Amino acid sequence: MTSRIPVVEKILSANDRLAVENRSRFDAAGLFSINIMASPGAGKTSLIEQTVSALKGQLCIAMINGDIATSFDADRAAAAGATAVQINTGGDCHLDAVMLQSALPQLDLNQIDLLIVENVGNLVCPAEFQLGTHKSILVASIPEGDDKPYKYPGMYRGVDAVVINKIDLLPYVPFRMEFFKKGIEALNPGSDQFELSCRTGEGLQPWLDWLTSQALRKA
Ligand code: MG
Ligand code: ZN
């Protein structure tokens, strides 16, 4: 009797293949890249503004923003000191590797230390589309409620770090931090977590240190 050894081939989807291409371009340029995801209004752009303002003296930062219609967020990042490129998705509710690749010719990747991609505000599908970025960050915020890891497990499972924004609102909003973090830990054990407020600046430093150390490691 002959036994057959099944050959398991991992067939990459078209998107994943392009994500791999994007990654190798980032690696060739020696830049560190992050994909920031969140629901609308959690504070992705505020986090980017604060990050760019704090780190622009140390790192050359570029930002690619995916939005359904406007360029408000890219304008805010540019005002804070980043080179900003806008992708209007024309109604699409997430960025994919093709859209990201189409924006890259507008940037001199060799000059960039940190590339921040702001995804479309959506807690469902952005995590399903690899972009080729090195790390995925999810921004959660206190007013959204402490049940989000339980309701949107797909988003929380796929990310490397969770930024918990708007902690200045903790005295006013019912939010069980322990319950929230238990949900993250169950889906994503050992992921990095940062509690901060983009409005007051409280808690920003550990996030900035984490980002800087990752970016310097790539350079
Ligand atoms: Mg935004
Ligand atoms: Zn989508």
CATH topology: Rossmann fold
Largest sheet at a glance? 7 strands, parallel
Gross morphology: globular
From the 3D coordinates, which CATH architecture would you assign?
3-Layer(aba) Sandwich
Structural description of this entry:
This protein has a single domain, classed as P-loop containing nucleotide triphosphate hydrolases (Rossmann fold, 3-Layer(aba) Sandwich), CATH 3.40.50. 36% of the residues lie in helices and 19% in strands. It has eight helices and seven strands. The protein is globular. The model has no long low-confidence stretch (mean pLDDT 93). Bound molecules: magnesium ion and zinc ion. Magnesium ion (MG) binds at residues 44-45, 73, 118.
Short description:
It contains eight helices and seven strands. The protein is α/β, with parallel strands linked by helices and 219 residues long. It has a single domain, classed as P-loop containing nucleotide triphosphate hydrolases (Rossmann fold).
